[in-house]
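User: quick one, sequence for these tokens?
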């Protein structure tokens, strides 16, 4: 167990440093979105392009990993949609709750953890997670949120076009697609370019964790506490449990195959707390309180749940 804590503790210690730096006034809360944009628009895109472009395509796309993540995630959407249909007070809260239950923080928390557990696979794992989350889970939950508004001017085709266009404009997605093209073309990065992307990508892990910690300062902590606890529990426990179940069934039936390391990583990916912009999306719908509480509960509790999952899986 000490070896597990040796992996998890440094991650959450850096998150605590970010929290403490903002609380002490060394950084302003308004600085965190700027650092977050650096990670999302420069460091992580560089990391994704380098991770994909420097490998053969068959090394980047693991169909077993993707299938298990898809099936487990869709099961989570179905289960949480049913549960929150019973416990949420309206459709908007239900949609926000489902979003928090199924969209993991693969970039700011997941990548640093994978870098410590599977350093050679961390970039590839992140690339596949970004692909699945941006193609399916984030758009699906955004559509659920928008449809919950009951606006007559909204239609499913219009929502799909808006979501797809927003997806294609994201720097991480552009970098990922560019890396895939580079890999399929059989090109190789020259030495200076390789070192450039490696240097820029190296900033992603630590800065991302500092941003997570600093962003927790000043969150509105008034809201539906019971709903927040349910969302956090769904994200940290139900999602990884359903992904683990999907893996057991699909691998047991011979539908997919997966290496032990990728099997561990797909469950750990699902066990991450909810993604960083969760509160922003919820605040746009006037539901920032419960989402902030859920993000705080999920991020802080992940220290314990991730330690347990690592102990069970490694």
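Assistant:
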């Amino acid at each position: 167990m000490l070896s597990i804590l040796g992996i998890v503790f440094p991650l959450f210690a850096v998150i605590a440093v970010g929290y403490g730096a903002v609380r002490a006034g060394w950084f302003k809360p308004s600085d965190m979105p700027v650092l977050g944009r650096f990670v999302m628009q420069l460091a992580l895109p560089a990391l994704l392009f380098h991770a994909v472009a420097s490998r053969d395509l068959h090394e980047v796309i693991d169909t077993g990993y993707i299938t298990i993540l898809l099936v487990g995630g869709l099961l989570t959407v179905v289960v949480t949609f049913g549960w929150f249909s019973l416990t949420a007070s309206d459709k908007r809260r239900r949609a926000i709750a489902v979003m928090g239950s199924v969209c993991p923080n693969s970039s700011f928390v997941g990548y640093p953890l994978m870098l410590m557990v599977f350093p050679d696979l961390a970039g590839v794992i992140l690339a596949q997670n970004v692909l699945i989350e941006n193609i399916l889970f984030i758009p699906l939950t955004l559509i659920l949120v928008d449809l919950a508004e009951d606006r007559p001017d909204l239609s499913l085709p219009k929502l799909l076009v808006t979501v797809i266009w927003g997806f294609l404009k994201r720097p991480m997605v552009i970098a990922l697609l560019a890396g895939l093209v580079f890999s399929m073309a059989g090109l190789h990065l020259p030495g200076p370019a390789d070192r450039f992307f490696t240097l820029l990508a190296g900033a992603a892990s630590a800065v991302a964790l500092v941003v997570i910690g600093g962003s927790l300062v000043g969150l509105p902590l008034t809201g539906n506490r019971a709903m927040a606890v349910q969302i956090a529990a769904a994200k940290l426990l139900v999602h990884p449990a359903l992904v683990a179940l999907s893996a057991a069934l699909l691998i047991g039936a011979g539908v997919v195959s997966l290496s032990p390391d990728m099997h561990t990583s797909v469950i750990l990916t699902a066990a991450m707390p909810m993604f960083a912009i969760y509160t922003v999306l919820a605040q746009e719908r006037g539901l920032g309180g419960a989402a902030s509480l859920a993000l705080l509960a999920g991020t802080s509790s992940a220290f314990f749940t991730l330690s347990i999952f690592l102990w069970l899986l490694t």
